[in-house]
Amino acid sequence: MTTTDRAPRVLLAPDKFKGSLSAGEVAAHLAAGLRRAVPDVVTDELPVADGGEGTLEAALAAGCTPVDLVATGPLGEPVATRYARRGTTAVVEMAAVSGLAMVRPGRATALAATSRGLGELVAHALDAGAREIVVGVGGSASTDGGAGMLAALGARLTSGAGDVADGGGHLHEITDVDLAGLHPALAETEIVLASDVDNPLLGEHGAAAVYGPQKGADPATLAELELGLATWVDVLATVGVTGARDHAAAAGAGAAGGVGFACLLLGAVRRPGVEEVLALTGFADRLVGVDLVVTGEGSLDAQSLHGKTPVGVAAAAAAAGVPAVAVCGRSGLTAAQAAAAGLGAVHALTDVEPDVGRCIAEAGPLLESLAPRLADHLPTPVALHAAGAETSTSWEHA
């Protein structure tokens, strides 16, 4: 290791530990554990995300201003929510207004859930002067092809009986769509679809087939949702919406139950979620002078290798010549897989406490007990506190 005459600097850039801690809480616990182990360490806490749940938190932690409002929830109920704003850029997160965590998934909710609230957030941001809107789409409750979002932005969806109700279960009723009333500011606004999902809207790899089951849809419900999405595309194409069928077949159209499709109809640019979040949070600037980056998420596995936060952070750190390691609740990666992803090491809570349930319930204290192991990756020799509590792998000493 190279000896330096300054305190070691560590950038803590984790994603959330789903079901346990937010990304900000993960970073805070790691910082507390590191400071106890290495008293002179300088830590910088930067919660990040991959474009899904946690994107809003990351934007706010990076200095964006919260904008609070009441919007339509996933089942049509009013919900208190917020988005983030910096200058003329706004960050909206679907999970914060129409999230799967906000419903009890079942057939009824799978058919009724709407993306209208997301459209209301976008409209509010447009009215406030935003001209770049980053749409984080993970963790959605709806499978409505983004119809609710477009309706909130001024589109009119009708059948022979009048306006069509919200929800994927009503899409099959649509016979006409009028987009003339779309918010005029959309024409001069850049929409960024922050998502790594590459599913098309329809078919066996589409929004309903792949993501419908986790939203409570059984096979019969999936068939209804698929019919509705297909009808939605057919009607848009029939009324002359440019590129409707091409957009439906495009990578990312199936994101968030088809909100990706609606964003593409509005001219959105699709970007990898973690890359967009890193840009929003000024990650590159925060890397200057850093000796080690610590990233992570609740479960590191093969899925993490495809655009998830830890790999994106590691790649950005490597590009700047900074080593990166990961912490997680549990890991399914081999050492070779971790190394190929740019991670110098992976430290899991299950290394400290084999009981996964306990790891989930007590993730914070366990992260603090795990944090001293990160000192081994610093470029200068450090003296840990006296042997015992700080380095013990026993729960009782955590």
What is the topology?
Elements: E1 9-12, H1 23-37, E2 42-45, H2 55-61, E3 65-72, E4 78-86, E5 89-93, H3 95-98, H4 107-112, H5 116-127, E6 132-136, H6 147-152, E7 156-159, E8 162-163, E9 176-178, E10 190-194, H7 207-211, H8 219-238, H9 244-249, H10 259-265, E11 269-271, H11 273-280, H12 283-286, E12 292-300, H13 309-319, E13 324-331, H14 335-340, E14 346-348, H15 356-361, H16 363-370
Helix pairs in contact: 1-16, 11-13
Please report the distance between the alpha carbons of the first and last residues: 28 Å
The side-by-side strand order for the widest beta sheet comes to 3-4-5-6-10-11
Mean residue pLDDT: 90
**How do the helices and strands follow one another from N- to C-terminus?**
EHEHEEEHHHEHEEEEHHHHEHHEHEHEHH
CATH H-tier superfamily of the largest domain: Glycerate kinase, domain 2
Percent in helix: 25-40%
What is the rounded Rg?
22 Å
Strand content: 15-25%
Q: CATH architecture of the largest domain, please?
A: Alpha-Beta Complex
Biggest sheet layout? 6 strands, mixed
The protein's oligomeric status is single chain
Task: Describe the structure in your own words.
One of its GO terms (molecular function) is kinase activity. Belongs to the glycerate kinase type-1 family. This is Glycerate kinase. This protein is an alpha/beta fold and 398 residues long. The chain has 2 domains: 9-48 and 282-397, Rossmann fold (3-Layer(aba) Sandwich); 55-274, Glycerate kinase, domain 2 (Alpha-Beta Complex). It is built from 16 helices and 14 strands. It has helices at residues 23-37, 55-61, 95-98, 107-112, 116-127, 147-152, 207-211, 219-238, 244-249, 259-265, 273-280, 283-286, 309-319, 335-340, 356-361, 363-370, and strands spanning 9-12, 42-45, 65-72, 78-86, 89-93, 132-136, 156-159, 162-163, 176-178, 190-194, 269-271, 292-300, 324-331, 346-348. Strands 3-4-5-6-10-11 form a 6-stranded mixed beta sheet, with helices on both faces. Strands 2-1-12-13-14 form a 5-stranded parallel beta sheet. Helix 1 (23-37) packs parallel to helix 16 (363-370) and helix 11 crosses helix 13 (309-319). Residues 382-398 have low confidence and may be disordered.
